[in-house]
Protein 1
Amino acid sequence: MRRYEQNQRRGISLQAYHDCLTWIDAKHDTRDVRKRIDALRANHQTIVSVWSNRPLKDTYHVDHCVPFAFWPNNDRWNLFPTSSKENLSKLNRVPSKQRLKSAMPQIIDFWKLAWNEEQDRTRFFTEASLSLPNIHSHEQEFEAVFEAMQLQVAGVKSRLLVGEW
């Protein structure tokens, strides 16, 4: 906004602004997180469903905490391991405040396990700072990301009238 006049003189079209605002990756893509879960399991790590805290069997799903249908976001903070049954029953609803609170230990444990290496950690916190409220670019605490994720879930629920699970 500070450069509005300068941009106006440069003749930037409305279409150019629109193109900058479109989602870069509008595909429902959980491959990176699935690969990470598979690598952890191959390394004999027990992966649990964040919603039930039960160990996952051979088949599992990667769930978007904030449903992709309402907010196409494939950031690592938004993707969790869960059972197929839980993910299919959740559908395009957001977790209730109580469900998130109950799942907090599993969510944070998963993040710490999956995104602990420096490169993964950097990407995790960069994505969080770019898409969640109240996360600064130098944030390094998973608990702060969880708090911001709760705000995002509540905001999506209230603005888009998304049902709870």
Note: The radius of gyration is 18 Å.
Protein 2
Amino acid sequence: MTKVALITGITGQDGTYISKLLLDKGYVVHGIKRESSTTRIEDNNKEKKNVNLHFHFCDMTDYSKIIRIIQDVCPDEIYNLAAQSSVHTSFDRPEYTAEINSLGTLHLLEAIRTLGLEKKTKLFQACTGEIFGNSLETPQNENTPFRPQNPYAVSKLYAYWICVNYREAYDMFVCNGIMFNHESPIRPDSFVTRKITKAAVRIKKGFQEKLYLGNLNAKRDWGFAGDYAEAMWLMLQQDKPDDYVIATGETHSVKDMVEFAFREVGIEIEWEGEGLDKKGINAGTGEVLIEVDPQFYRPIESSLFVGNPSKAREKLGWVPRVNFEELVKMMVKNDLELVKC
């Protein structure tokens, strides 16, 4: 029997990868997107060519519309990927962040319960390694205490706990994926990784003079979004629901990302100065290409994130296939194709 999946935030990075994975596995896929969201060309093509892909317009704050969609679709699996996912924006718009990330998750859970789908519909909730904040424990695992340091992380922590609550109170199949940073060529350039790879290409081709960044020493556990989509699916194929840290177990700094990206376009970066005065210099020409701009610093910076994915490896059989260097190469190659001239 063909499985039916509902994906919120289907036009985003994670939604794109999980929808492709599910369609390849023969699922009928329904996606929720905001009317104001920008749909990629490939999504338009899939909508025309693939009869198993369907779209619904809805905002995660609209509970009545959400419950109608779930009632009509009657999904076997729901992947909740819709979110206000910018940490920087969450400081500027904390209420909106909470409405989408926290209450949006509650709306899905309550819709499943109200419609009597507790025994049919499984839910994957996209959580984040940001909930660990300035953890005293490294690497972080499923038992590490949470210490969120920004409104985005706080909103996701509410989503995490409300999922646990509904799982225990109503015996629902709900899984939290505590996913550390995961990137790809389709990551928007509002995120620092894509901002770096795109700038490396534009500087190489003469379309941009400098790249301005915040904390160059901030370290993250960066993986490939396509690998993380597989982990989401694996969680919902288990006999029992559980929560899993999804990460590579390796950490790299923003400075590392800069060096790898610029090296891919043939530019070696050397560093001078410290703190706000730190500059990245083209080793071949002496030009200053990277500077620090205080406006890109977070009010509270969680400086080190690295996850321990051993539980996912042991119980799900999941291991990341793309390493950090391969990820950066993939993203730079994509940006080279986009910036042709």
Note: Residues 192-217+253-302+332-338 form a domain with the UDP-galactose 4-epimerase; domain 1 fold (CATH 3.90.25.10).
Protein 3
Amino acid sequence: MKITLEELRAWVGVVDSGSITAAAGQLGQTTSGISRALSRLESKLQTTLLHRTTRRIALTEEGLLFLEHAREILQSVERAEDSLAQRRITPSGRLRVNAATPFMLHVILPLLDEFTARYPLIQLQLNTDDVVIDLLEQQTDIAIRIGDLQDSTIHARLLGCSKLQLMASPAYLAKYGHPASVDDLARHRLLGFSQLDKHNVWPVWRREGEFLQIKPTLSASSGETLRQLAIQGQGIVRISDFLSREDRACGRLVPVLEAETQCMFHQIHAVYYRNTSLSVRIRCFLDFLSEQIASKPLL
């Protein structure tokens, strides 16, 4: 008997979601149906792909090897479906987009009404992560990356650049005073990132030609968390313009050491795998996002 796509989707779904129950929910099937599909697959292959207990699943060596092939098969089918979809007048289908929480909240979400009105048959699935994800493992079509790109195996499209500035709330500055120089920052509460030190390099000179590397007084993994801390008067923060645009406009955050601030920008890229055909819906989303960023002061 030949393996079916239904069995492959059930198998990959269980691996990706971590359980039969979760896979059933994602695929719109019953747990018994997923379990039967896995049993049929293992029977046809005459090997055990998963060790299953009541608490967890674990891949066998054979399962790990087969998983790579199963993904390639499903991706080939998806590419074939995409090639047919390109013949349609109206783009349609699911589009999985991943971005850091701040970019999702402050750039993508405000544009959703216009995008869905223009492309009503594209079904967006929006996911957020504040760390770099594996597009294949997370089943992601497009990921928005902020900063330098490290992975050369992916396609990248530059969407724009976002300036970095030092900001604080009026309440914080009223309590602790305005720093008059870069040296004064040592006497202030500094808000920074907890995971990557490269995000704690600030756009002011420590000495000529050397940017200031701070040690945060209070740290967090998300730029959105740092924004909220700054608004609440917890300290001075280095923040991207796209994230602070509304706060600056209404006075929730004001510039700090503006005269000493050097030009420092983060590039904003959309990335996708090179071995994946660029479907119509992916192209529509990238064209739309580029158009909106170019026409409005989002970044």
Note: The domain at 5-85 is CATH 1.10.10.10 (Arc Repressor Mutant, subunit A).
